[in-house]
Specification:
Blueprint lengths: L1 E5 L3 H11 L4 E5 L11 E4 L2 H6 L7 E11 L4 E14 H15 L2 E3 L2 E9 L2 E8 L4 E7 L1 E4 L6 H5 L7 E10 L8 E5 L9 E5 L4 E8 L2 H14 L6 E8 L5 H4 L7 E3 L15 H17 L3 H4 L1 H17 L1
Parallel strand pairs: 1-2, 1-10, 2-6, 4-12, 10-16
Antiparallel strand pairs: 3-5, 4-5, 7-8, 8-9, 11-14, 11-15, 12-13, 13-14
Helix pairs in contact: 1-3, 1-7
Length: 319
Amino acid sequence: MKVTIIGASISGLFTGYLLAKEGVEVEVYERGDVLGRPPRTLIVTNKINEILDFIPQEAIINRIRYIELFSRSRSARLELSSPDLIVERERLLNLLARLAKGAGVKIIFNHRFEGFAQFGRKIVVSLRNLEADEEHRRSTDILIGADGAQSAVARAASCNGHHLSALLQARVSLPGNARPDTSQVWFDPDRTKYFYWLIPESDQVATVGLIAEDPKRAERELKAFLQQQQLEPLEFQSSPVPMHRFELMSSVLAGNRNVFIVGDAAGQVKVTTVGGVVTGLHGARALATAVLNGRNYRKELRELKLELDLHLLVRHVLN
């Protein structure tokens, strides 16, 4: 069996690794020429260790043990039952890529997905070599789209799209009133229906950000917040984020049985915190299990769907 994965994302590389270590031939095609660009700092729960079956130590740059919450009139400081992990996305991607390559996965850079055609049980994938500007085709048994929020595979497979929100954050010097083991969250519904955050990367640097409905509003509101907090941005990090919908089951695969999408491409994102790392890894494990054992991907996703639906309900309540 041969599997072609479009997108060397966190979920794409983990899917490839899980399949290859069981003897499946896997090729991963990535549009960029390096992993982890643009860079971004992520915060995840320690559930990531359970999903991966190991601790991604080299990708962890800090641990958060407390969270401070601020509204207009009140504040609270909470101790977490287990620390949140601050992860550098580029390091995590390179860790997963090394594991995938060790298991036999071929990772091919500078290739853009152009489309696919179905011929019986085989799929012919069209790819463009961006360095040579040449199109070529590859035959595969299974095609997986792990190519992010604006997935070309999802569009080609006529999967329903996802509403996108804009994530924007700035790296700043850690303020004097902040602690490196404490994240801070501000609720201001006039500016964002989500929240602002300050997440320490170390005892010197933190990221400050928010989620907004569109990039222009995210930029406007973040700059105003930075000015209000008297913080000077060192650099900005941004990303479109897909919002999970209740109809997840109908949008994770095409009408045929051998084209799938996973991770951000499938909207496997918690809409409370707009976090998709652990849930995307969960989706990758479910997909790999389905492929390896001939099971139904939808059924393997039931546990994840219940979790994502619960977060969707909580988000509606918060709104």
